[in-house]
Design a protein that fits this description.
The strands form 2 sheets. The chain has an 8-stranded mixed beta sheet, sandwiched between helices. About 40% of the residues lie in helices and about 15% in strands. With about 450 residues, it is of the alpha/beta class. It is built from 14 helices and 14 strands. The protein folds into 2 domains: about 270 residues, Rossmann fold, CATH 3.40.50.2000; about 170 residues, Glycogen Phosphorylase B (Rossmann fold, 3-Layer(aba) Sandwich).
């Protein structure tokens, strides 16, 4: 039996209802251990996301970019992308990667192991920009063929069979996954079932955790055609745990952003003395330290104002801290905002402060935020973390500080807010760094070359 849910662009503009009631998707569990979601989806949220999927195939958010024209008329390469959730609000770089590949004539079919986890407006805008199909692995609780308590290995096998059933008819010649675990485990099983070769971008889950099984990671690297590391730190780690003999397979391709979407804003466009912070309202985001720092600046006679964008369990605690310090006129908690709204906020603030004590699972999320801020001319203060120091050159294009040190954070903010000339120089250096190393267009070209070489090699072999 072929099990599939293929969302086509023929979904009518009026299709705003719950797609689950009309489409034949009935396997899997959107809260499975395979993609390790930290936030289970309730039925209402699942239905909202399903509505977004349907709407996204027909509607474009105002101001959303249209798909880029194909710049390479080479024969079509059909690549399957296996992702834990698509689109993910925190992983916009994956969307940019796919858009750049499709502009080069590569047909990308997305297989998402879970529903989108972002806002409906962001989801519709993202899906509307894709040329290729998107398939979702979905299940309703009442007719889930496996059961909500199914072990991760059984869920992975079912997901692999689901993908294997589709790739032959879709004539997919290569599979690629993001994350060092979850989706990359699934495509390894798909290769066993079908013989279709694979590659993956190794980041986040499964790469650094103490409980990670590096033997399994090494096996995946050995079987892959190639593996992408987004930072030199990640590449060095892969070489240490997998061995130097697989070094030729591990390619360094940096995270990329769309420079046309992230246009540079001159200094006069940024509101003076304004600080922006973005992230989940949880302890490791360090926003309590940031509020402490703003209180210190107020006591020193500075008029710094802080805007925090995000949602989370500590919202009430942070609001209480603001009131306790008497900072109600200086600190604003905006809640969640769309990517379009966040782009506007980045262009009008002076400094972005990201005092995240980020772990390995958050580092790519933080890097994506930092790159976008650097691109638009927002000077960044962030924690000195492995990999992140490859983006921010302390004192040249931003500042790196110790975690959980409000006094140091206040000093770094004070220096930048008091020196517009220094901010301008750092902003220009930051933009130049992004253009030189992190442009999605150039980085996707390297990835497209690897896909083309792999597909040609496979065609010759078969």
């Amino acid at each position: 039996m072929r099990i599939s849910m293929k969302l086509q662009r023929s979904v009518p503009r009026s299709s705003q209802g719950d797609l689950r009631s009309s489409l034949p998707a009935r396997v899997g569990n959107h809260d499975s251990a395979t993609h390790r979601s930290k936030r289970p989806l309730g039925r209402n949220q699942s239905q909202a996301n399903a509505q977004a999927i349907g709407a996204g195939l027909a509607l474009v958010k105002p101001g959303a970019a249209t798909p880029k024209p194909i710049t390479n008329p080479a024969p079509v390469r059909r690549i399957g992308y296996v992702l834990d959730r698509f689109p993910r609000a925190s992983h916009d770089f994956v969307l940019q990667e796919i858009l750049e590949l499709q502009s080069r004539g590569i047909e990308v079919h997305v297989f998402s192991l879970g529903l989108p986890d972002g806002r409906i407006d962001d989801t519709t805008a993202a899906l509307a920009r894709l040329r290729g199909p998107v398939s979702y692995f979905l299940a309703e609780e009442e007719d889930d063929a496996i059961g909500t308590e199914a072990p991760a290995s059984q869920m992975m096998s079912t997901q692999a069979c689901w993908i294997a059933n589709q790739i032959t008819s879709a004539r997919i010649e290569h599979l690629h996954a993001h994350l060092a675990a979850g989706p990359s485990d699934v495509i390894k099983e798909v290769r066993r079932l079908t013989g279709v070769p694979y590659s993956f971008t190794a980041h986040s889950e499964g790469l650094y955790e103490e409980e990670a099984d590096f033997r399994v990671l090494r096996e995946k690297v050995e079987e892959a055609k190639f593996v992408v590391a987004m930072t030199e730190f990640d590449r060095g780690h892969l070489l240490r745990v997998c061995g130097a003999d697989v070094g030729e397979k591990i390619q360094s391709i940096h995270m990329g952003i769309d420079l046309d979407e992230c246009r540079f804003s001159a200094a006069e466009c940024h509101d003076s003395d304004s600080v922006l912070a973005v992230g989940p309202l949880v302890e490791k985001s360090g926003f309590a330290d940031l509020i402490d720092a703003i209180a210190m600046l107020r006591d020193r006679g500075h008029s710094a104002r802080l805007t925090i964008v995000g949602e989370g369990e500590l919202e009430q605690d942070l609001r209480a801290q603001v009131q306790r310090y008497g900072l109600g006129d200086r600190v604003t908690l905006l809640g969640g905002r769309s990517r379009h709204e966040l782009g506007i906020l980045m262009r009008v603030h002076t400094v972005m402060a990201q005092p995240w004590v980020a772990d390995e699972r958050d580092r790519d999320v933080l890097a994506n935020l930092v790159l976008e801020a650097m691109a638009v001319g927002l000077v960044v203060i962030s924690i000195d973390l492995p990999g992140l120091c490859e983006l921010v050159d302390d004192g040249m294009n931003g500042r790196l500080i110790r975690p959980r040190d409000p006094l140091w954070l206040a000093g770094a903010l004070e220096t930048l807010l008091d020196n517009p000339g220094l901010r301008q120089r750092m902003a220009l250096h930051a933009r130049a760094q992004v253009e030189r190393r992190y442009a999605a267009a150039s980085n996707a070209s390297d990835l497209a070359r690897l896909f083309n070489e792999t597909v040609i090699e496979n065609r010759i072999a078969t």
